[in-house]
Amino acid sequence: MRPVRSPPGRSAAGARAAQAGRGIRWDRVGRTALLLVLIGIVGLFIGPLHSYWATRHEAAARHNEVVRLEHENARLRGRRAALKSKGTLEKEARRLGMVRPGERPFVVRGLPKGP
User: Phi, psi (5° rounding) for residue 66?
Assistant: First the structure.
């Protein structure tokens, strides 16, 4: 690069300002283009990143639902096993007010409440 020569009566700063007005500053054009490309690349990542987070959130919700259903399934299997036994089935029937054939049902009313 050659040093800028100022014509007589102009300072070096004035000569640089005059030279800047004459041509295209390719270094600035390059930086601007690079910045636009970078913004474009970041823009391309926004959509997939949003999709990734939404999918991750949905997967966590589904996992929690599966855990809850597994616990409910275990509880219901235990209840089914308990109801298969004859003693438990009879207790449930008596709680509902049922009696065996041939038994005489009694209803007791007016009992004092306990202490």
Answer: -65, -45
Domain that holds residue 80: 22-93
Q: What is the pLDDT of residues 60-107, one digit of tens each?
A: 999 999 999 999 999 999 989 988 888 888 888 888 989 989 998 888
Q: Which residue has the tokens 């054009």?
A: 29
Which residues, 6+ apart, have CB-to-CB distance to 26 below 8 Å? none
The 3-state secondary structure of 39-72 reads HHHHHHHHHHHHHHHHHHHHHHHHHHHHHHHHHH
CA proximity to 19, closest of 42, 43, 1: 1
Name the domain count of the chain.
Answer: 1
Angle (nearest 5°) at CA 30 between 24 and 31? 115
Burial class (CB in 10 A: 0-12, 13-18, 19+), 98: exposed
Both tokens assigned to 33: 């283009």
